[in-house]
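User: I'm new to structure prediction. If I give you an amino acid sequence, what do you actually give back? Let's try with this one:
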Amino acid sequence: MTLQSVHGTRIQRLNDLEPRKGRYVFYWMQQSQRAEYNHALEYAIQIANALDQGVLVGFGLMDNYPEANLRHYTFMLEGLLETQASLSAQGIKMIIQHGSPVDVASALGRNSSLIVCDRGYLRHQKTWRAHLARSRPLVASYRLKVM
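Assistant: Good question. You get back a string of structure tokens that encode the predicted 3D arrangement of the chain. For your 147 residues, that looks like this:
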């Protein structure tokens, strides 16, 4: 599924499955922790509109992110709360859950038509996305490249 306002070269399918009948489009927010200028989120919204569904945004908050300290977590949580408020003003629900990001995404994406995620550049982020694409066999997954 490709939509006009998102350039096709930015979209990378993570598996070959088609969207299924679900209750919403799930956007797994991890790298791009913002509501504005977020192409993956915009793509998820466009697909949801085309399917006449809502969008659910999910973020997995882990305890031991590599090289993160208390200041990093404080800054990130403050930003995530702002993002959550901004999304809420647009009628989009955002859930921040404690746990492994890929486990949180898998659980929150369980009842979705498809999953959209942002691009992760680090090895562990790439591994998470590949794992989700394999472990959620009923859900089509897309990743958007930031250019």
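You can read the tokens as a compact description of the fold. Here is one thing that stands out. Confidence is low (pLDDT under 50) at residues 137-142.
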